[in-house]
Amino acid sequence: MNTTTRRLLGPRLLPWTMRIDRAPAGLWLALQAAALWPTWVWMGRRLQDGSDDPLGLLAVAALAWLGWQLRHQLRQAPRLPWLAAALAGTLGATA
């Protein structure tokens, strides 16, 4: 274990990382939805302006259906690469 890893997993930070790891899945989803609030506002405006964006609701519905179908296979603690991908996607959507 190198010095950087040892510092990152030091005694002060380790309990905090374990609390994050035990956060409920609903909290992760709520945080993701809150981080994307500008996108939700933009999409709501696009739905009302008569553009073709109502078809985007079909994609959101398909994603919700897929999440419901796979709900038993989802982990409470997300894998780090997927969490990093979600963070990158959120930052990309709000930039």
General description of the model:
The chain has one domain (25-94). It contains six helices and no strands. The protein has helices at 3-8, 14-21, 25-35, 37-48, 54-69, 80-94.
Number of helices: 6
Number of domains: 1
Largest sheet: none
Please give the radius of gyration in angstroms: 18 Å
Overall mean confidence score, pLDDT:
76
State the end-to-end CA separation: 36 Å
Helix fraction?
over 70%
SS elements, strand count:
0
Q: What is the chain-wise order of helices and strands? A: HHHHHH
Uncertain spans: none
**Shape category:** elongated
In what range is the share of β-strand residues? under 5%
Structural class: mainly alpha
Topology of helices and strands:
Layout: H1 3-8, H2 14-21, H3 25-35, H4 37-48, H5 54-69, H6 80-94
Features:
about 100 residues, elongated, mainly alpha, about 0% strand
Concise structural overview:
The protein has 6 helices and no strands. It is mostly helical.
